[in-house]
């Protein structure tokens, strides 16, 4: 079976490890370049993208992660993880960098400052109806070539796929429903 890493520098790592294991995957936290080298795919969790950006550089994971993704390693980012996978961000910190790889422009904290979090049911392609939990979430403002929109909320894409890269604005890892993770696991065997 494929071994899936969860980037473990910050964010809701434990929830993703649990969801991946429920989806039948072999999952392990990734904190060091050596650990990244041992996984076949990676999940970038929710959390705080500016902090993760800083820690990725401190832990010397930014360049190896970019190289692996450029090389075709499957990746799934939720919320802050979606921001990390985006080629371009709006309303980011002035010095904020991303890992990139997905031809999307995301707007950070897009749902408005007064609405810190909300939940809704969404239809997601290849998954079905999902309970989507948004916590200071980004949305996708623009999509480039080869980006498929899997779900929308407030008139914006909130789940997107490009080849073997997947990103959601919401946090399926906090709902106890592992179908989005199962879909990512299925993407590895294509
Ligand atoms: N607002 C956070 C950021 O910009 C993301 C929030 C989350 O992951 N729940 O990184």
UniProtKB/TrEMBL annotation:
Keywords: Glutamine amidotransferase, Hydrolase, Lyase, Pyridoxal phosphate. One of its GO terms (cellular component) is glutaminase complex. PROSITE patterns: GATASE_TYPE_1 (PS51273), PDXT_SNO_1 (PS01236), PDXT_SNO_2 (PS51130). It catalyses: aldehydo-D-ribose 5-phosphate + D-glyceraldehyde 3-phosphate + L-glutamine = pyridoxal 5'-phosphate + L-glutamate + phosphate + 3 H2O + H(+); L-glutamine + H2O = L-glutamate + NH4(+). GO terms for biological process: L-glutamine catabolic process; pyridoxal phosphate biosynthetic process; pyridoxine metabolic process. Catalyzes the hydrolysis of glutamine to glutamate and ammonia as part of the biosynthesis of pyridoxal 5'-phosphate. The resulting ammonia molecule is channeled to the active site of PdxS. In the presence of PdxS, forms a dodecamer of heterodimers. Only shows activity in the heterodimer. Belongs to the glutaminase PdxT/SNO family. This is Pyridoxal 5'-phosphate synthase subunit PdxT. The gene is pdxT.
């Amino acid at each position: 079976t494929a071994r899936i890493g969860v980037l473990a520098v910050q964010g809701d790592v434990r929830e993703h490890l649990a969801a991946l294991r429920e989806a039948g995957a072999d999952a392990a936290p990734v904190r060091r370049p050596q650990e990244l080298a041992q996984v076949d795919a990676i999940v970038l969790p929710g959390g705080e993208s500016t902090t993760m950006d800083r820690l990725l550089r401190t832990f010397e994971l930014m360049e190896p992660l970019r190289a692996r993704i450029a090389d075709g390693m499957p990746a799934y980012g939720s919320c802050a993880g979606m921001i990390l996978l985006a080629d371009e961000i709006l309303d980011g910190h002035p010095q904020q960098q991303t890992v990139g790889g997905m031809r999307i422009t995301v707007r950070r904290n897009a749902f408005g400052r007064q609405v810190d979090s909300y939940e809704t049911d969404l239809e997601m392609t290849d998954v079905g109806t999902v309970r989507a939990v948004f916590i200071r979430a980004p949305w996708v403002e623009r999509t480039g070539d080869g980006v498929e929109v899997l779900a929308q909320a407030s008139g914006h894409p909130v789940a997107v796929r490009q080849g073997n890269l997947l990103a959601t604005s919401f946090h399926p890892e906090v709902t106890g429903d592992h179908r989005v993770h199962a879909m990512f696991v299925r993407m590895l065997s294509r």
